[in-house]
Amino acid sequence: MDLLVVGSGFFGLTVAERAAAAGRKVIVIDRRPHIGGNAYSEAEPETGIEVHRYGAHLFHTSNPTVWEYVNRFTTFTSYVHRVYTHHKDVVYPMPVNLGTINQFFQAAYSPSEARALIKEQAGEFDVKTAQNFEEKGIALVGRPLFEAFFRDYTAKQWQTDPHKLSGDIVSRLPVRYTYDNRYFNDTWEGLPTEGYTAWLERMADHPNIDVKLGVDYFDESQPLNRRATVGQLPIVYTGPVDRYFDYAEGALSWRTLDFEQEVLNTSDFQGTSVMNYPDLDAPFTRIHEFKHFHPERKEIFAQDKTVIMREFSRFANRDDEPYYPVNTSADRDGLLAYRELAKGEQDVHFGGRLGTYQYLDMHMAIGSALSMWRNDLAVQDD
Ligand code: FAD
Ligand code: UDP
């Protein structure tokens, strides 16, 4: 064995695939009973509808290297993500665009009129100098739209004072003064034609890769544990960085999600794949209706049943799945301390969303794994 990869998410599988292709023998372990980390999906048994087990995953990228790489394992459908939001019994397009603005203000503003209005409603806040989520949000869309669509949604999603949240969270969403309501700005987007799991399995399908599921790296009753492996061979670790160091610098804060899934006897519940619920009277943040991700699967799409999933957000305890790094200033201090500790670990490479405590989209996880392979691991071949 030449390399141990802890975690079979996109980061771990990308490193494993590259290493295997270069002739290394790789073992990938994962504590879950399936590969793929949070991108894993499976067919709901009654309907055959593909359900993204850990929340809806939309692939998008503007990185040509990543796009070329992922196309080795899957083709992509022409799905373009569009989201709607259900505020006070009216449905609006999201992210904020000219359609949202005109519907909200019952107006017919031109792009420049809408721009002037939002600037006035942003008041004292400016995108360049905004210090936190609230200031940045108001600077971007003005106070009335911020309060309608962002303030309470974010209260449900993060349960954190918006002054303590980074403005980067809200800048994930574009604001457009056109009627373009695409959720993402990237050059390429789509869903894997045969589903995420087929894609992930193809990445792992190499004679040099041995995947062992249901294996926890910190379980010393199994041989591939931290104590037995560190210093013996190169290790790529994609689990939570604080867990690796037994929380020596304190626990970093994470949000987790609870999903409530239902099969309904109706052909179409909400007419779209994702409906956000920005008001406090709905305890969930959004509802996913999975058949709308694949309208091209005609028979599955047309049936008189549908699968929906309500998404609830809360703080993660140690036993919960960590989904979103909260990234308060205390967390950032903790992360710096863990980075120092990580430097002292012999030939252990921390990567991925959990290993670096960064909110990484799939294309970012894959891109950074390709870089880690190239810069830190492949060179040992020379
Ligand atoms: P993960 O997928 O989390 O994989 C880490 C793996 O490590 C897991 O399988 C875990 O079981 C394993 N592991 C952890 N600890 C141990 C241990 N002790 N022993 C063994 N194994 C261990 N990205 C997009 O591009 N588009 C989206 O629409 C999108 N939506 C998302 C929605 C949600 C709710 C979430 C949480 C994320 C979303 N993402 C999305 C991000 C996407 O999930 C990540 O980019 C991707 O999963 C990162 O892969 P990773 O390998 O870093 O981590
Ligand atoms: N957000 C919001 N209202 C919405 C959608 C998003 O307030 O209708 C905020 C929220 O704080 C969220 C952030 O914008 O965490 C980023 O949104 P995104 O859709 O990228 O979140 P994700 O899909 O990662 O949960």
UniProtKB/TrEMBL annotation:
InterPro entries: UDP-GALP_mutase, UDP-GalPyranose_mutase_C. GO terms for molecular function: flavin adenine dinucleotide binding; UDP-galactopyranose mutase activity. PANTHER family: UDP-GALACTOPYRANOSE MUTASE (PTHR21197). It comes from the Bacteria. Residues 148-359 form the UDP-galactopyranose mutase C-terminal domain. The lineage of its organism: Bacteria, Bacillati, Actinomycetota, Actinomycetes, Micrococcales. The keyword Isomerase applies. Its cofactor is FAD. NCBIfam families: UDP-GALP_mutase (TIGR00031). Its EC number is 5.4.99.9. Keywords: FAD, Flavoprotein, Isomerase. This is UDP-galactopyranose mutase. Belongs to the UDP-galactopyranose/dTDP-fucopyranose mutase family. GO terms for cellular component: cytosol.
